[in-house]
Amino acid sequence: MEKNNRWFGVLLSLILLSLINGCASSYQNRNIVGKTFPTVTGTSLDGQSMNIPSEFHGRKVLLILGYVQNSQFDIDRWLIGLDMTKTDIEVYELPTIQGLFPQFFETQINQGMQKGIPKSLWKGVVTIFDGGQDVQQFTGNINPNNARVILLNENNEIMFFDDSGFSVASLNQLRAQIVKKL
């Protein structure tokens, strides 16, 4: 009986491991400038449902996507750079998580983020669970610690994209695109 329980435990562990790994696919990074951001729905930390990118139609916005918790360091560098250069752009941080397994813990993940982010910023942090895999496939997710920085124009077309990690040169390129007209 004890031997059967051990085999059952091993089998169950293998099934769970394959489900978790099966939900985390790798996609080659690619240049998405000129393309339209995929349609997804997310929820801001203040509880508002948002349809992206249609929510932003008619205005330029900057999306900063993080695919893993460690991407927060790069996201923070981008946000600090934007603030230090007094860059005038509406910014949304989009934690984008793929797979079915994280969706089971959506509430706990959002509550954890709320504890680390001032309430005044919650409306600008929009978690993407449903459609996260589509977004990661769209941009690529190799080197997931690097943020994906996407500037959308008024027609939701991508004017700027960077996934190489923050640099002053990339920030300056972004700033040049922000002031460009359609």
Question: How are the SSEs placed, and which strands pair?
Answer:
Blueprint: H1 2-22, E1 40-44, E2 49-52, E3 61-66, H2 72-84, E4 90-95, H3 100-103, H4 106-116, E5 126-127, H5 132-139, E6 148-152, E7 158-162, H6 168-179
Parallel strand pairs: 3-4
Antiparallel strand pairs: 1-2, 1-5, 3-6, 6-7
Description:
The protein has a single domain (34-179), classed as Glutaredoxin. The chain is 38% helix and 18% strand. It is built from 6 helices and 7 strands.
List keywords for this structure.
182 residues, alpha+beta, Glutaredoxin, four-stranded mixed β-sheet, three-stranded antiparallel β-sheet, globular, disordered N terminus
Quick take:
The protein is an alpha+beta fold and 182 residues long. It is built from 6 helices and 7 strands.
